Amino acid sequence: MSVGKTPVLSGWTTRRWLQTGVAVSLVVLTLLGITGAWVLGRTTQLSEQLVDVRSPALTTSIRLESALLNQETGIRGYGLTGVPEFLEPYRQGIAEQDRSVSSLTELLAGDSDGLRDLAAVQEAITAWQEEIARPLAAAPPAQAQELGATRSGPAKARFDELRTAMAAQQEALRTARADARADLFETMRLRNAVFAAISLVILALAVLVFEGLRRGVTTPLGRLAGDARRVAGGEFEHTITPSGPADLRQLGAEIESMRQRLLSELAFTEQARVRLDAQAADLRRSNAELEQFAYVASHDLQEPLRKVSSFTQLLQRRYGSQLDEKADQYIAFAVDGANRMQVLINDLLDFSRVGRVHAKHTPVDLDKVVDQTLASLSVGIEEAGAEITHEPLPTLTADPTQMGMLWQNLIGNAVKFRRPGLPPRIHIGAEREGELWRFTVTDNGIGISAEYAEKVFVIFQRLHTKDAYSGTGIGLAMCKKIVEFHGGHIGIDNGHTDGTRIVFTLADRTETVSDAPAEDEPAAVAPAPERTP
């Protein structure tokens, strides 16, 4: 069953090899079974011939001879004495003779030689009985002695002929029985040899099947499995060499093709990793530069602004009586511009720090955060006469500083962008949505048109002038950045028309996420709340 090297056999699959091997084995076993059945049948036939024919025929012939001897003894005694009682063995012998002859006729049916010998015996019996036994048995007792004396010579000669015929028959039967026994023994030896050959052939077939499976299936599969383990263990350069039947070679070729594709993918992945490492290095460098910029913006840039504001105000106080109304207006513009510039710088710093500086996730009770936010906005809330309610809020794993900035911007915007003459009514809702929490901040303010629903979350985008509503245009952009950093999304519910409803989701993070190392600096102050696109 091992794979051949000719072009025809090399294309055979494992199934075809198995089918051919099983077919050949069945043919051989069938031939051996037929031979074994014939030998068993022959052995049984010879055994039956010996037991049921040859031996009983010889035994019956011996009984026939005994019956004839009984007849001869009775006739001879009656001829010597004339006593009728001597005829009883003769009559019994006649009956036994008939039974024996009938039995021999059945046993020797189909045996021409045996029937010929039986016919010779019957002729001798008939001749002896007609010439000697029957006339003497029919004679009266008074004449029996005289008749026996006159026929004693012929009687002896006829009976000797009978004995000779019987001896020839028995010798033939003994020879036939010996021949049958010899045939039986010879057939038994042949039977033993055939069964021994069957055993050897079965053993040879088993060895061939085992060796064929080992060479054609298990060894190629083991070699293929070993190659696959080496590749799986990290030796991606190791070549898989297919062997065995055609289907196993095809399987090996497919695994080799997969290894080559995997090697190509690994090379591409390695190149991508190198590029990613380079990009990460660039990102770290960019972050360092951004940190440097943040430091400069928070210290060096604000110092000139403070000087401009301070000296302008000092100029107004010292020379205010010497300046006209136009000059006072210009000084107010300069002071306001410097102050707004400081607020803008602080807001930009806070916006840039989201996800970098304040990124320590801990369990945060949002009820407490909202209460703290309301306390920090209490002055504006009292001035506006706002009424703020909220449902029970969950405790999430989040950054506490960013949560404070988020709520301060959302609630501050809801208070600031109120309708003139109408006290603000603000409600905060929360409900679970799968793995996220969904929050809503609903107010009865001036609202946001659907066309600006996306624009309001873009940095520096405003829907109103600074004279109408103060602010820098960063608040909602910062809210979006905080929400997305915590795995959620934020948007405007356009279905709510009586004011504004901001909807956002937050993920309940159970692990601490830190995209950049936190810096040892004070927590950022939330920028001035505003609703700006």
Helix count, per DSSP? 13
Strand content: 5-15%
Helix content: 55-70%
Major β-sheet strand ordering = 2-4-5-7-6
Oligomeric state, counting identical vs distinct chains: single chain
Cα-atom radius of gyration: 64 Å
Spatial separation of the terminal alpha carbons:
80 Å
Low-pLDDT parts are 1-5, 510-533
The count of DSSP E runs of length 2 or more, i.e. the number of strands, is 7
Q: Spell the H/E element sequence.
A: HHHHHHHHHEHHEEHEEHEE
> How would you classify the helix and strand content by structural class?
alpha+beta
Mean pLDDT: 79
Give the overall form. rod-shaped
Question: Could you explain how this protein is built, in words?
Answer:
Helix content is 67%, strand content 8%. With 533 residues, it is of the alpha+beta class. β6 and β7 form a beta hairpin. α2 packs parallel to α4, α4 packs antiparallel against α6 and α10 packs across α12. The longest helix has 81 residues. The two termini are 80 Å apart.
